[in-house]
């Protein structure tokens, strides 16, 4: 039986060489011969080696997963052939051909029958700078659009930004972002880039050491790319809509260049620098530490990382550096705790910030949901920039002090995880207008006496029509009447506010509910949810809001909810009874999933609701 072989060939030559048909076909010949003959020879294809073969074990997480063969070939080349094994048998072949300077040029992938499945080529300038990665067809001819590594500056020049402003003309502040670069071909990014007086891009690529800080993080020997910087930068620009962006591609090949990066930022009037990156190696960050210390007026917003660990015990850098002008942030989940996989530290990390499932632009320009501490950096960098714009004379110490004044001790329990507090809503500050709506015409239930449940209703989306709201509230009271719970005073208001406040999210709900100033149990008819666990209806009582008390007592229904009246009764019961319990029984209201025919409550459920509802002052007798 023939083993399933997957062969990947990499051709790497000098910086000044260009891929040509002979090289690609020579590599394909080697790949095909090796794949076809491996069961017989168990060696690289003969005729390609010019020196001794050196063998070593390949390890992954302390496990041996295969064998590596290294040997020289003609034209000063070096081949690495990795044979990856599964259950003691070859499962994958990875071959790399290196040249004088180790620049990747061609990749070939062969499948089980040794036919060509994937072929990629990297194009270079005459000076040896990689431009793009091109996919090849089975004839080794280019197909499709290239994956850009360094698009020429003409892409910027063809999409000029708004006219440059000069000192004295309300010049916007410049904010830097140190990441994998940005896609400056996107108009949304291009039009926000800082330029000098000659119209030249201010940002810089400290990885390649050129003036093209393009979003490209090569992986797998350089033939595949991760794109990260466009996402972090787009979120920053969305939340600080008048700043100018100075993008930097971080110096992965030589982290000592961080000194030059900070100096470049300082020379170009960058006073706030977002840094959604880090590593476990302290020695990588000595240059940055010295530079940040030397520029105490600059503010650095740094990621705590996404390893799911306490960085006080297992440090991540530069987050763990003790610098007064560095603010370290991590992403918070819906319960005001570090989100899954993100880092924390009661000494090293300053703030929890909602940064799960937030909207950003991906490399293609499409909107996408992003999560993690990198995006907490974007949000707090934008917040710091808005503070700076309001008070241009402020330096790093002033901004850091303002953040402490606003957000220190801002949530019970936040300091179990971080040193300073919880920034519930980095966008808070815009006005929220509450407009009274006509009252609801509710039909009272056919019971003589009962416990009154007053509610305050907030309508966040006009698609919640007056009739639909009235019908939902009427049905909810009718269902709760079996527990002698009847309507109390009902107020209803429409909310005019920033678009993001129309959706349920733990942090932004604080802004909304504080501005609305409701006095009773609050029913919010929202547009949608941005919670990590997305439900069409959600209840917040005393039992599930210890870390987020501003949410209690409230019920939220989203536009897509089925059977709004039944769902409202279900969620209100959770709040009144102060219980998240669900029960079995097709007819019972409190099943895990509401159904239009399931509206019954047991005597025991009613006793619990009345006792806790009265005790918590939600019900009035």
How would you describe this protein?
The protein contains twelve helices and 29 strands. With 621 residues, it is of the alpha/beta class. It folds into three domains: 142 residues, no CATH class; 259 residues, Rossmann fold, CATH 3.40.50; 183 residues, Collagenase (Catalytic Domain). β3 and β4 form a beta hairpin. The longest helix is centred in the N-terminal third of the chain and has 21 residues. The radius of gyration is 30 Å and the shape is globular. The N terminus is likely disordered.
Task: Describe, in short, the structure shown.
With 621 residues, the protein is an alpha/beta fold.
Topology:
Blueprint: E1 7-13, H1 21-41, E2 54-60, E3 63-73, E4 77-86, E5 89-98, E6 103-110, E7 116-124, E8 130-136, E9 142-148, H2 154-157, E10 174-179, H3 187-190, E11 204-205, E12 217-219, E13 224-226, H4 229-239, E14 244-249, H5 258-267, E15 270-275, H6 286-294, E16 299-303, E17 326-332, E18 351-354, E19 358-361, E20 367-370, H7 373-390, H8 396-407, E21 421-422, E22 433-436, E23 451-459, H9 466-480, E24 485-496, E25 503-504, H10 506-516, E26 521-525, E27 528-529, E28 537-540, E29 554-557, H11 564-577, H12 603-615
Parallel strand pairs: 1-5, 10-14, 10-15, 11-14, 15-16, 16-17, 17-18, 18-21, 23-24, 23-26, 25-27, 26-29
Antiparallel strand pairs: 1-6, 2-3, 3-4, 4-5, 6-7, 7-8, 8-9, 12-13, 19-20, 22-24, 28-29
Helix pairs in contact: 4-7, 5-6, 9-11, 11-12
């Amino acid at each position: 039986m023939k083993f399933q072989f997957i062969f990947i060939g990499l051709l790497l030559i000098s910086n000044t060489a260009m891929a040509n048909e002979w090289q690609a076909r020579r590599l394909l010949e080697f790949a095909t011969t090796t794949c076809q003959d491996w069961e017989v020879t168990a060696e690289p294809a003969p005729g390609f080696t010019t020196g001794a073969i050196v063998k070593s074990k390949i390890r992954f997480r302390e496990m041996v997963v295969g064998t590596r063969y290294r040997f020289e070939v003609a034209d000063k080349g070096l081949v690495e052939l990795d044979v990856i094994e599964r259950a003691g048998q070859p499962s994958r072949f990875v071959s790399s051909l290196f040249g004088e300077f180790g620049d990747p040029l061609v990749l070939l992938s062969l499948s089980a029958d040794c036919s060509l499945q994937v072929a990629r080529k990297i194009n270079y300038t005459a000076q040896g700078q990689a431009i793009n990665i091109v996919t090849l067809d089975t004839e080794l001819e280019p197909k499709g659009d290239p994956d850009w590594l360094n698009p020429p500056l003409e892409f910027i020049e063809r999409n000029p930004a708004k006219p440059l402003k000069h000192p004295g003309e309300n010049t916007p502040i410049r904010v830097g972002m140190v990441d994998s670069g940005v896609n400056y071909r996107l108009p949304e990014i291009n039009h926000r880039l800082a330029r000098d007086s000659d119209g030249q891009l201010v940002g810089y690529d400290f990885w390649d050491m050129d003036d093209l800080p393009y979003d490209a993080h090569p992986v797998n020997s350089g033939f595949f790319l991760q794109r990260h910087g466009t996402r972090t930068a787009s979120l920053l620009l969305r939340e600080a809509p008048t700043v100018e962006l100075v993008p930097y591609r971080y110096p992965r090949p030589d982290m000592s260049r961080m000194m030059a990066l900070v100096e470049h930022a300082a020379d170009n009037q960058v006073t706030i620098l977002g840094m959604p990156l880090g590593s476990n190696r302290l020695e990588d960050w000595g240059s940055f530490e010295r530079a940040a210390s030397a520029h105490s007026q600059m503010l650095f917003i740094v990621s705590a990382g996404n390893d799911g660990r306490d960085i006080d015990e297992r440090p991540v850098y530069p987050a763990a550096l003790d610098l007064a002008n560095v603010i370290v942030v991590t992403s918070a989940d819906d319960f005001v705790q570090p989100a899954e996989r993100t880092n924390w530290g009661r000494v090293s990390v300053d703030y929890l910030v909602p940064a799960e499932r937030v909207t950003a632009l991906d490399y293609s320009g499409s909107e996408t949901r992003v999560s993690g501490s990198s995006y907490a950096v974007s949000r707090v960098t934008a917040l710091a920039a808005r503070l700076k714009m309001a008070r241009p004379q402020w330096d790093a110490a002033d901004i850091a002090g303002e953040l402490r004044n606003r957000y220190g001790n801002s949530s019970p329990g936040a300091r179990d995880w971080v040193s300073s507090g919880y920034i519930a809503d980095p966008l808070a500050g815009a006005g929220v207008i509450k407009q009274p709506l006509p009252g609801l015409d509710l039909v009272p239930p056919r019971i003589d006496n009962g416990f009154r449940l007053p509610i305050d209703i907030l309508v966040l989306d006009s698609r919640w029509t007056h009739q639909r709201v009235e019908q939902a509230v009427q049905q909810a009271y009718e269902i709760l009447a079996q527990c002698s719970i009847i309507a109390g005073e009902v107020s209803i208001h429409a909310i005019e506010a920033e678009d993001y406040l129309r959706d349920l999210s733990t942090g932004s709900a604080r802004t909304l509910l504080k501005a609305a100033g409701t006095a009773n149990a609050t029913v919010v008819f929202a547009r949608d949810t941005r919670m990590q666990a997305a439900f069409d209806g959600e209840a917040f009582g005393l039992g599930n809001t210890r870390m987020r008390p501003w949410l209690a007592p409230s019920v939220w229904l989203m536009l897509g909810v089925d059977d709004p009246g039944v769902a409202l009764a279900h969620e209100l019961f959770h709040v009144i009874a102060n219980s998240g319990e669900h029960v079995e029984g097709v007819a019972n209201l409190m099943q895990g999933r509401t159904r239009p025919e399931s509206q019954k409550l047991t005597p025991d459920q009613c006793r619990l609701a009345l006792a806790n509802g009265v005790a918590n002052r939600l019900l009035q007798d």
